[in-house]
Amino acid sequence: MAAPEAGFQELGPNSGLIEEMYRQFVENPESVAESWREFFADYVPRGHTTSGDGNGEVATTAAPAPPPAPAAPAPPEPAPKLGVPIPAEPATPEPLVAPHEAAPPLVLDGEEPKPLRGAAARIVENMEASLTVPTATSVRVVPAKLLEVNRQILNNHLARVGGGKVSFTHLIAFAIVRAIARMPAMSSGFGVVDGKPAVVRHDHVNLGLAVDVEKSDGSRSLMVPNIKHADELDFAAFFAAYEELIRKVRSGQIEVDDFAGTTASITNPGMIGTVSSVPRLMPGQGFIVGVGAIGFPAEYEGADAHVLAQLGVSRVVTLTSTYDHRVIQGAESGE
């Protein structure tokens, strides 16, 4: 099941992983799981063609460029009429940088730029693709006291029955799914059909979870698998599906289907202390929620606990909703 251009685009930030897995497959087909071998059986990287010898070896060659079309003869210029001046064509200033062409990096003495390859190069493509989505962002600071209390009660119970531990991200992600049920316009996607703009109102929510992956060499990558039909799950089933995806990412057992069909995403940079974040929105998705760190407002961070209790100051969390403004409006995102 090859990934055509549209299917490849649906993979969003996961396309870098696809390229890495494909390179491993080319070197040794047995080094990837069976589901990946099936996926790569007729997979064609963009701008390449593949040929196989029947033994699992796949060779990639750049697609040949088509021969140039013969130039059509230019029509003869009409003779100018006497007494009628011929207007000169206006001069077009040359752009400083050609369209879609980035300026070279700043290189200081003794430095040498290194090309980005594999997953890092795909991240560049994904971020540039995200620039084609006209987005806007809603920001809201929410009191987190009730969230903290309910999480503590729930984890106290789970500790007694051996049921694991619930994080703030579990609760916030589940709350987002429930909020979409109340604001179904948020579950929308933009596209072009027959050359005309179109919107899809999704019947179900496939919620993407942005997972930061640190490699052995210290480099980092991003994977965004999704929980299928998250809107049909109660919290226990949602928690189990969430944990299963994280387990598969950490153990390297993630599969192609885990990435396909993401309709919306959540990312939690608050886990590393980021207070507020406006993440990039990938084409095809309606919105992405960024979750900030949970803590007291900065002006109260050093205050005495008794004073905070007297003033009724609780911890807060900043949530951002970055949405495709072609199909989702600010009032819908804010609500």
- What summary fits the major beta sheet? 6 strands, mixed
Q: What's the count of strands?
A: 12
Count up the helices. 9
**Rg measurement, Å:** 26 Å
Topology (elements, then pairings):
Layout lengths: L4 H6 L4 H13 L6 H7 L7 E5 L5 E5 L56 H12 L4 E9 L1 H17 L6 H15 L5 E6 L2 E6 L5 E3 L1 E4 L5 E4 L2 E2 L7 H17 L12 E4 L19 E5 L13 H7 L4 E9 L5 H5 L1
Helix pairs in contact: 2-4
What attributes characterize this protein structure?
19% strand; globular; two-stranded antiparallel sheet; disordered N terminus; 9 helices; 12 strands; 6-stranded mixed β-sheet
Q: Mind explaining what this structure looks like?
A:
The protein is of the alpha+beta class. Helix content is 30%, strand content 19%. The protein contains nine helices and twelve strands. It has a six-stranded mixed beta sheet with strand order 3-12-11-10-6-9. Strands 1-2 form a two-stranded antiparallel sheet. A hairpin with a 2-residue loop joins strand 4 (188-193) and strand 5 (196-201). Helix 2 runs antiparallel to helix 4.
Quick overview:
This protein has helices at residues 5-10, 15-27, 34-40, 119-130, 145-161, 168-182, 235-251, 305-311, 330-334; strands at 48-52, 58-62, 135-143, 188-193, 196-201, 207-209, 211-214, 220-223, 226-227, 264-267, 287-291, 316-324. The strands form four sheets. It has a six-stranded mixed sheet. It has a two-stranded antiparallel ribbon with strand order 1-2. Helix 2 runs antiparallel to helix 4.
